[in-house]
Amino acid sequence: MLIGARTAIVPMGISCQTAFQIEKQKAAIEDLVGERLVERATPFDWRIVGLDNVAGMVERGEFYPPPAVLDMAGQAQRPAGRAEAGAELPAHKSRPRPYWRSERCWFWHERLTDFEAFTEKQAHLVENLALVRGVERRIFFVSNIQANLRTIRRDAGGFRVRIERKDVIRLADVLDRRFGPSALHMVARPNLLRDFGGLEKAQLGTTLTLEGGRVFVHLVDNPEKHDADDWRGDRATWQKVFQRALESLRLHEGVPA
Predict the structure, then answer these.
(1) pLDDT over threshold 50, residue 91
(2) N- or C-end of the chain: fewer Cβ atoms within 10 A?
(3) Going by DSSP bridges, is the β-strand pair 2-3/183-188 parallel, antiparallel, or unpaired?
(4) C-alpha distances in angstroms, 256 versus 6, 7, 21, 248?
(5) Residue 76 — pLDDT band, cuts 50, 70, 90?
(6) Distance CA 247, CA 142 (A)
(7) CA distances (Å), 30 to each of 26, 39, 99, 144, 146, in order?
(8) Residue 161 has pLDDT above 90, yes or no
(9) For position 208, what pLDDT does the model report?
């Protein structure tokens, strides 16, 4: 997360690329919002978790479980329809990672060698996220364009890559209730959207506005055309997203872009 006196730019999943690009483009984002921002780690920076589960965690205010319930086998159940229900998948690249099964959430960069340290860290991340309540301009980002998400889902399973309209609207609603009026920006692959009423066929590189200006959908190129092992994303693509996103915010406030 980047946060200043007036503005918070907050990653909310569904994978690591969202937080990575926000951090790497800090200087450009500061220029766009017109103030100095500081970096703060927040719960969804380095997790892999479907948007439906993100919305549920925010709604309940439950962002992490007791460590004892985490599955440390590096495995998750194969999604229904892909194989026999309950079939297990091999650990992703043989590196066990904590998995919160009830929320289908991977703590992708945690190793969980110390339960107490894990709990303290997660509590600190939640405290940082709560700082968003204290600013005027709250801009949340989610994306499903990380090039290796399908590979991870195939190998490790246990989360949803496709984004459904109902989950976006639910997340926008719960963000408003928990933190105050917010803007939610979704950076999406058109072929991984569902129930958006033809939005999936809109022109790439465009930004569409939903829910009276609370939700913005940025349609970008399919990353599978590029390096499937590069989880970081394309800097130029995200620069355009941030430019359009923050212009949309200024226009929503009635300030010329």
Answers:
(1) no
(2) C
(3) unpaired
(4) 17, 17, 26, 10
(5) very low
(6) 18
(7) 6, 12, 35, 24, 24
(8) no
(9) 72
Looking up tokens 């209730």 gives 177
d(CA 82, CA 79): 6
Q: How many residues does the chain have?
A: 257
Which residues, other chains included, contact 212 with Cβ-Cβ below 8 Å and sequence gap of 6+? none
Kindly give, in sequence order, each residue whose CB lies less than 8 Å from that of residue 73, ignoring residues fewer than 6 positions away. 91, 96, 99
Q: Which amino acid is at 75?
A: Q
Full-model pTM = 0.84
CA–CA distance, 82 with 121 (Å, rounded to integer): 35
Say yes or no to pLDDT of 186 above 80: yes
Would you report the helix, strand and coil content of the chain in percent, each value rounded to 5? 40, 20, 40
> Above 70 in pLDDT, residue 138?
yes
Cβ burial 43-58 (10 Å sphere, 16+ → b, else e):
bbbbbbbbbbbbbbbb
Task: Tally Cβ neighbours within 10 Å of residue 195.
Answer: 13
Classify the phi-psi angles of 44: left when phi > 0, otherwise alpha if psi is within -120 to 50, otherwise beta.
alpha
pLDDT greater than 50 at residue 40? yes
Evaluate if residue 81 carries a pLDDT over 70: no
Contact indicator for 110, 98 with CB cutoff of 8 Å = yes
- DSSP, residue by residue, 18-34: HHHHHHHTHHHHHHHHT
